[in-house]
Each structure stands twice: as C-alpha cells, then as structure tokens.
Amino acid sequence: KPSSIRAGEIAMVESDDEYAPDASDDDLDAHQVSTKGGSARANRQIESAFNEVRRTWEEVEEGEDGTITKTIDSLLQQGKRKRTLKDTTPLQRGIIRHLIIIIDLSAAMTEKDLRPTRYLLTIRYCQDFITEFFEQNPISQIGIIGMRDGLAVRVSDMSGNPSDHISNLQSLRKDNPRGQPSLQNALDMARAALLYVFLPSQWSLAVLVGTWG
Questions:
Q1: What is the DSSP string of 49-92?
Q2: d(C-alpha 207, C-alpha 91), whole Å
Q3: CA pair distance 184, 72, nearest whole angstrom
Q4: Rounded-to-integer distance, Cα 172 and Cα 125, Å
Q5: Reported pTM
Q6: Is the CB of residue 197 less than 8 Å from the CB of residue 98?
Q7: Is-contact 5 21, C-beta < 8 A?
Q8: Least confident of 13-22, 67-76, 94-103, 172-181
Q9: Is 181 left (phi over 0), alpha (psi -120 to 50) or beta?
Q10: For residues 55 and 78, what is the distance between their CA atoms, to the nearest angstrom?
Q11: What does the pLDDT look like over 61-109, one tens digit per residue?
Q12: Residues 191, 197, 200, 205, CA torsion sign
C-alpha cells in the first residue's frame, strides 16, 4: 500500500504541477480562491468588452405620432457630427466649386430592385447629397440635368441655393421616368453650362453622373 500511494502521488504531481499532497486545508482554500479570482477577472474583461459595443436599439423611442422617425433623425445627426469631428482629411479652404449633377430619368429607373424604386431612391439620395454638399461648400454652386427620351433635360439651373434644387427634385416625383438615357447629350449640356464660368485658380468645375446600371 505505501508503494501504491507513492506511485499515485507521483502520477498526480506529473499531471498537475500545482498539486500539493501534503498541503493543509487552508492552503487548498487559498488555492481555490486564486482560481476563482482569475475567472472573475476574465469575466470582467468580457463584460467590459461587451459594454463598449453601442447598443443602438436601446436608444430607439417612439414619438408622439407612434413612429421612430424622430429617433432615426437624431441618430443620423449624431453620426454626422461624429464624422465631422473625426474628419482629419486636409481640405482646400475657400475653394468655390461648380458642380453639375446628371441623373437618369429613363424607363430603367422604374425597376423595383431598390425600394421603393430606383427613381424615387435616386431623388432622395440626390437631395441628401445636395444638403451635405452645401454644408461643406456654402459658397459653391450646383446645377442638375436629367436624361430621358434620348434627350438632356434641365432640372435645376446653376445656383447656390440648396432649397431651389431640392424643390426642383421633389417636383420630379410627379413625373414618370420614360424613354432611354443619352449621356452624350447630358454631357454636352453640362459642358455648355460650365463653359462660360469664369475660372480663377481657386475655382473648380466637376460633373457627377448618377445612374443605376
């Protein structure tokens, strides 16, 4: 029996370096506490990492009208302010930009692969772009041209008033997209609109084409 006990002790020592067969009950209790402490530290680290995740669903609240539109707008504004504060990209200040936006008003925009339709979604995105563009370039100007029926259609003249552009875009909702687009005619009209712009060194000209392939 003594030899078998010694063999068992040796086997346990080899399998676990922290095993102490001659340790007292107090020593064993201390050993168990230290193990629990390590587990608690690991749990605190996991909990801390989880708390760093922003749980936006907890911030959603219904408005008086029963919708969450107000909360969504608030979250969008917070994201915009956060991007503005984090934006460290060097910008050329004082530059005056003249931009022509070309949008597709052809029959292809009636497709519903994008909800509610390509047409309505393009109008909405264009409005958002104009709003943000003038926030960053308050003294610049924009013009809007549409493509439909194989022709170029002037949607909004070159102007620095975002309200006029947004109003003209909203009026497009009453029309239905039709025909085929003509990028060539749209570019020719954009070139003509920008051709007579007096261009000092601090001004820039650009054309933005928006369509769904």
A1: HHHTS--GGGG----TTS-SHHHHHHHHHHHHHHHHHH------
A2: 19
A3: 40
A4: 13
A5: 0.59
A6: yes
A7: no
A8: 13-22
A9: beta
A10: 15
A11: 777 776 767 777 777 777 777 766 665 555 555 578 999 999 999 999 9
A12: negative
